[in-house]
Amino acid sequence: MKSYTPYENVSAVDYPPILAVTSLNDTRVLYHEPAKWIARLRATTSGTYLLKTEMGAGHGGPSGRYDSWKEEAFVASWVLDRLDRA
Whole-angstrom Cα distance, residue 13 to residue 80? Predict the structure, then answer.
């Protein structure tokens, strides 16, 4: 498993901009895992890395139609900003 985990395989190469989205109440991927990964990327390389932690969501993201749309809009706007299309 160590051969393919993102955290264990960070190296000093140029990564594309990364948005990591996690949830405080996720029981499958605990919030500290993406936080450690982003911290390691920032310590190892120079790039654009953003960590967003949902405080009230679970593994599937925020519940409710409007909250899900808001989350999708955030991700889409981040991607558009990285592409200089915002």
Answer: 23
Compute the distance between CA of residue 74 and CA of residue 80 in angstroms, rounded to an integer: 10
Q: Which two tokens stand for residue 51?
A: 């960590």
Q: For the beta carbon of residue 6, count every other beta carbon within 10 angstroms.
A: 14
CA atoms within 13 A on the CB side of 42: 12
Amino acid type, 64: G
Amino acid found at 35: A
Query: Which residue is associated with the tokens 């200089």?
Result: 84
List, for residues 37-70, the tens digit of each pLDDT value.
Answer: 999 999 999 999 999 998 776 666 666 678 788 8
Under DSSP, the state recorded for 16 is P
